[in-house]
Design a protein that fits this description.
about 100 residues, mainly alpha, 3 helices, 2 strands, about 10% strand, flat
Length: about 100
Amino acid sequence: MEIENPPADPNEWSDEQWLEWLVATDVADEIDQTPSVLKRAANTKSGQVLGQAMLGMANAIYGAKETQVQIVVENKAKKPDEEPFVVNLDFENPKSSSVSFKPEN
């Protein structure tokens, strides 16, 4: 089934022509879904063993890839929103307002 290529100027085709072309290309993609020799070989046990052997040879020749080391550090600092003091405001009598500091642990 031969599918016509779209024109260089997209305005030459109507919306219906574009929709027909899209449907035709979708059907063509579904027909061409036969597994290739490489895919069939990679899915066999011997193909998987051969692939792992090739990766092992590459590691032996070129060296193993460097892995990223992830370091996890536990932060025991206070939460940023936690203030080291408490403010008590008395709006009726401002002289009674106070600030008290929390003890450090």
